[in-house]
Write a structure and sequence with these properties.
Layout (H helix, E strand, L loop, with lengths): L4 H25 L2 H28 L3 H23 L8 H19 L10 H17 L3 H26 L2 H13 L1 H7 L5 H21 L2 H6 L1 H10 L1 H19 L4 H40 L15 H17 L9 H29 L3 H21 L3 H7 L4 H25 L1
Length: about 425
């Protein structure tokens, strides 16, 4: 591309003006962490712009540049507001503060060549803490920078939502889904905090993307690539990673059964063995499994937004009977009218819109079955269903449940977007007839 002298002069003028503005901002702010955050924001925004430009060219949609840039800007703005302007009380974000302290301790141990002090020892927490510690080691210990990094991860989720929707349903659905995920308040908020959720949902979306692409193009390499985001799921939240792994194995074995008669018999034998193995584990370890779920639920049953704290599972049957109630709370709480604190009030208000989206998602599933797209979306439906069922029996706090719902919410939005896109098509078709 050849630039004219006038264009170059405009570029120089813009660069000089930006430099002067930033200099004045830095003088006024006089806070090293905020200044570092602004520099890091500019660096990440440049990367976002390059990615979105290439991505929009690949999919032939110039709107994506604005969608993806706004996705990062929106999340980064929330990160700055909750860190600098209206700093969140640690009571609202105890996990974020604990992650920050542990990341700082580990990063300091890198500098001092000593053994780090670990306050939290679960696998997912340690993995995320070491990721953050490496980040702190390079850029310095700052929760704001980690929030900006997670905002960038949240933007990558929007890319995956677009790609998954585009592959299964087409451009219209992909645009609606990506815009809804960009502006959805809770998705943007949780992605802009120092928490594992943004990395976790990105890993789940990457598993789904590779699976869908592998099914569509019948290429083995995409199924091999699934291993990497699947490992990330297991490392970040091992129980969710195990659920997804089991679903993936079962579906792939069913796919193997369609190749020929020999492989069909072989695959059915494998499924019988797996089923027998699972049944044996359940029979042998029912008391331990029930105890494990009780411990997990008791751990979460704290704080002002705890619900049904008296529930204790005495056997597997009681746990299964509680599932519908737990599922209702997991998906739809906090309910309208709940205003014990500001965050709960905003969450309840947002949930009113979610109820509409959920109904649209059911409509989307109906349209999928009607249009014979269900085989391509079965894996995605299974992930939403089984993650929801798992959380239904361990969740006992509305705030935690609301945050964990982020792991399935973008995919519910995809189904809702398909339904919304079909409604628009029907209306356009009727208008053309008249």
């Amino acid at each position: 591309m050849i630039y004219t002298s006038l264009e170059l002069k405009k570029s120089y003028f813009a660069a000089i003006l930006l430099t002067l503005v930033l200099t004045l901002v830095f003088i006024v702010i006089n806070d090293i962490e905020v200044i570092m955050g602004l520099f890091f924001f500019i660096l990440l925004f440049f990367i976002v712009y390059i990615l979105s430009k290439n991505f929009s060219t690949k999919y032939g949609c110039y709107h994506l540049v604005y969608i993806l840039c706004f996705a990062f800007f929106f999340r980064a703005s929330i990160a700055f507001v909750t860190s600098v302007i209206f700093e969140l009380d640690p009571a609202y974000m105890p996990d974020a503060q604990m992650y920050h302290m542990q990341m700082t301790n580990i990063a300091n141990s890198f500098f001092e060549y000593t053994k780090p002090i670990l306050r939290m020892h679960s696998l997912g927490v340690i993995i995320y803490s070491y990721i953050g510690a490496i980040f702190y080691f390079i850029f310095g210990s700052s929760m704001l920078l980690m929030k900006l990094f997670n905002s960038f991860i949240g933007m990558l989720l929007v890319i995956n939502v677009y790609r998954i929707s585009f592959l299964i349903f087409g451009k219209r659905t992909a645009l609606i889904a990506s815009v809804l995920v960009v502006i959805w308040p809770s998705i943007a908020f949780w992605a802009s905090q120092n928490l594992r959720d943004s990395l976790m949902v990105l890993s789940i979306s990457q598993v789904i993307y590779f699976f869908v692409k592998g099914r569509l193009y019948q290429r083995k390499r995409y199924f091999y690539l699934i291993i990497f985001p699947l490992i990330a799921c297991i490392l970040l939240r091992y129980y969710i990673g195990i659920i997804i792994s089991i679903l993936l194995i079962v579906i792939l074995i069913f796919q193997l059964s369609k190749v020929n008669n020999f492989l069909r018999v072989f695959s059915y034998l494998i499924l019988i063995v797996i089923l027998g193995f699972v049944v044996k584990i359940i029979i042998d370890f029912i008391p331990s499994i029930v105890t494990l779920f009780n411990i997990k639920r008791n751990y979460l049953a704290t704080g002002g937004s705890a619900f049904l704290t008296h529930i204790q599972y005495n056997n597997l049957g009681e746990m299964l009977l509680f599932m519908p109630i737990g599922l209702f709370y997991f998906l739809f709480s906090p309910f309208p009218g709940m205003n014990e604190n500001v965050m709960q009030s905003f969450s309840a208000l947002e949930n009113i819109i979610f109820y509409v989206i959920f109904i649209c998602a059911i409509g989307g599933v109906y349209q999928i079955i009607k249009n014979k797209k269900f085989p391509l979306t079965f894996f995605l439906c299974s992930i939403i269903l089984f993650i929801s069922l798992f959380y239904s029996v361990i969740e006992a706090n509305m705030g935690t449940a609301y945050r964990h719902k982020m792991q399935i919410l973008p995919f519910i939005i995809i189904f809702a977007s398909y339904y919304l896109s079909k409604i628009k098509i029907v209306r356009n078709h009727e208008h053309e007839k008249t």
